[in-house]
Amino acid sequence: MGRRKDKIKLGAFLLFTGHHVAAWRHPQASVGTDFENYFELAKLAEAAKFDAIFFADGVAARLKVVEAASRKAHSGVYPFEPITLLSALSSVTRNIGLIATASTSFSDPYNLARQFGSLDRLSAGRAGWNLVTSSDPEAAYNFGHEAQILHADRYDRAEEFADVVLGLWDSWDDDAFIRDRESGRYFDPERLHRLDHKGRHFKVRGPLNIPRSPQGRPVLVQAGASGPGKELAARTAEAIFAAHITLDEAKSFYADVKGKLGAYGRSLDDLKILPGIFPVVGRSETEAQEKFEALQELIQPQVGLNLLSQLSGVDLSPYPLDGPIPSDLPVTNAGKSRQELVLDLARRENLTIRQLYLRIAGARGHWQVVGTPSQIADVMEERFENYGADGFNIMAPIMPGGLADFIELVVPELRRRGLFRTEYEGTTLRENLGLKRPVNRFAVSNAAAAE
Amino acid sequence: MGRRKDKIKLGAFLLFTGHHVAAWRHPQASVGTDFENYFELAKLAEAAKFDAIFFADGVAARLKVVEAASRKAHSGVYPFEPITLLSALSSVTRNIGLIATASTSFSDPYNLARQFGSLDRLSAGRAGWNLVTSSDPEAAYNFGHEAQILHADRYDRAEEFADVVLGLWDSWDDDAFIRDRESGRYFDPERLHRLDHKGRHFKVRGPLNIPRSPQGRPVLVQAGASGPGKELAARTAEAIFAAHITLDEAKSFYADVKGKLGAYGRSLDDLKILPGIFPVVGRSETEAQEKFEALQELIQPQVGLNLLSQLSGVDLSPYPLDGPIPSDLPVTNAGKSRQELVLDLARRENLTIRQLYLRIAGARGHWQVVGTPSQIADVMEERFENYGADGFNIMAPIMPGGLADFIELVVPELRRRGLFRTEYEGTTLRENLGLKRPVNRFAVSNAAAAE
Ligand SMILES: Cc1cc2nc3c(=O)[nH]c(=O)nc-3n(C[C@H](O)[C@H](O)[C@H](O)COP(=O)(O)O)c2cc1C
Ligand SMILES: Cc1cc2nc3c(=O)[nH]c(=O)nc-3n(C[C@H](O)[C@H](O)[C@H](O)COP(=O)(O)O)c2cc1C
């Protein structure tokens, strides 16, 4: 296999105070939750030429166990809502992509299409939407439901939701607004396209009441890893945020999803796969281990157990903390792929419940690497060159230090190996990710448009 | 009657290219629809110490008559969605209030409460929500409806929507997030409040997954003038954006709404009334008239007629353009107050359809004043001192020139008369508007909080 010609894409996953569950208790973590704290992180990532900053999101505080929730920084309560936060960042950054998570289960396609279209225009072409269906069971209670929406129903709605949003983003030709003062024509009615969508979940006339955006449309990202999740991604997504631990998992997911593209008339380059990585960087192996241990020691047992329950979708609190994972756990309606991932890990390594929560508390089911800059660059290179990833979402253990470490120590090493850019290739997120600008499906032909 | 002790509040109503329907055709109007164009306007308003910038909004392109719509800059298609736009402006302004319109008919209370809460945090306390119920009949088609929602039903939903949002904004005490590294407690569970709302339209558990905002909550503005609109405002709003033409109309609206406050246990200062004013400023009367005529001449007949139909809620195109307004027009389901306002004007002044559209095309049902700086200051002062208004929303005819004219010529005149501030009184929108910071209804007592 020859060396890949493209380069690694990097996203900065900006979870405040840091990705490790106990980061906020660490004396070097910032617990500031002001705009300035995020601005600082965005500037760091942009100066390092990251493709994008990335925000996870949810629409509920996770309060099933309030006692445990109150001991976590990340109980589903975020300092800011991501679309507004990225909009605020758009006017004080220039090049970095701005990707916000929003749920198809608890939002409306017209409003969502419009807000992301607006963000793309505000940022001159740097917006991305991370489409999720929300695995959190508590979100449903904030939106009129009595119980969580079933996995299959969430994806049924997500498929149609994506179609509506993509359709609305083609409401106007790029050159629809002619603003001809002389003739008094502000837009060309032929370059306006009503959607007239009628489906099982939505009825939306259109057009979207915002002009087409600089990227044609925002980049569509996805983060679901079940069968239906992969199918939706293969059909519509341009990037996938994934969670894999082993190289084999990563390679088989990569091959699986890329293999589905052809059936939808898409090519391998049309979808970038960007798994998360939780890097604990030290100038020596010992330093890295010590950094990691310092965080692990801050994990409170209730919190570890709570996180494990949240990720595996089942409540493990009735079982002995130092016993094995019970083999007869029920399959849940939450994130199936996450549940399997976590339980597989426990079985493979024969872990107790306590050992398991210590294993996943930091990276939360993502790939955890503790080592020197060259060790970390080695495994990233390996995963990239072996087609397990097109790039990575960097989940720094503590903020801002963990991100600064990665940028100061690992990024130069990736550059030395020719694996990461030294300058932005373009001005839009699409151009930097190497994605095509989509043609408007409804557009009047170029010949007609040129008249 | 003694002179009022408070000062005039000023909002800048930032409609791109200008408020006059034909502004975009004027050689001096900017037709730029980039972020930079808005940033320029926001900077102008902030340098002049305006209380706020204000954005109207709708969730549909108005396409009933595409031919006419395509000849207007304001056909319901906005360059940006206002919440994202104001978020982007929040990071590049310091003092000015940021008020966005959003509809209770076509959005969701949890998402809306969260985004405005986020904007308030991003701006360190400068956010306002202009609650509207959407009179535009076309919006319904983008949200699954077969026809416009009835006026009474829109207000029924709006009442409950406001309650849910206000309740969610009290989800957390101001000091709920203690972030105590030592004890491992991130928030105090006693200072978290679930809403558990169950009503006719909404079922929302809460809490909102964002901390309480710097102003306690964003300023609640409203813009509905019917009976139900005034009642909702008297109960919940802190500012009203209104449309009045005569001093008598303004005074009776003012007295009416302020008179309702007592019944809700509120005082006269708890609600500011800020009608729109469309000022055409000239250094001489002749210059002002010429400026106005130059705009009027640019109005295309289809556009004038279309606008009239939109504002009065009835299609007047079957009637002769130079004939009178028919007396047997049906009452519509759209904005009742707007319809009456427009038709009353026509009857009072015995106008033809063409004369009427020429009368309202500029100010669109708002108060139009064409004159010198001192003439304009005179009528503003008169309306303020006679309790017809607590301030005004300035609807500049063309942008940026019309706003710059008002700031350069009228604002100094208001200052000379001691009617307008020279420096911001506070740092939040509430402080500048002279509104109290609301107490959290659920908060644990101050004594307990101080433990
Ligand atoms: C890597 C990854 C990240 C995710 N991030 C979010 C998120 O930020 N917010 C959210 O509501 N759901 C998130 N999800 C959940 C998915 O959207 C989806 O609802 C859930 O995983 C169930 O779908 P699946 O079984 O296809 O994975 C994430 C899932 C994965 C795999
Ligand atoms: C001065 C004023 C400004 C308004 N601005 C908006 C707006 O920006 N967007 C909108 O959807 N509705 C707007 N409305 C409509 C109101 O929200 C309301 O839906 C409509 O007027 C019907 O209510 P009413 O009969 O109480 O006035 C406005 C109404 C008034 C009086």
TrEMBL record, chains A, B:
Record's keyword annotation contains Protein biosynthesis: no
Keywords per UniProt: Flavoprotein, FMN, Monooxygenase, Oxidoreductase, Plasmid
InterPro entries, per database record: Diverse_substr_monoxygenases, Luciferase-like_dom, Luciferase-like_sf, NTA_MOA
Domain Luciferase-like, first and last residues per copy: 13-390
A family per Pfam: Bac_luciferase
The family this protein is said to belong to: Belongs to the NtaA/SnaA/DszA monooxygenase family.
Protein name: LLM class flavin-dependent oxidoreductase
Organism of origin: Rhizobium beringeri
Taxon lineage: Bacteria, Pseudomonadati, Pseudomonadota, Alphaproteobacteria, Hyphomicrobiales
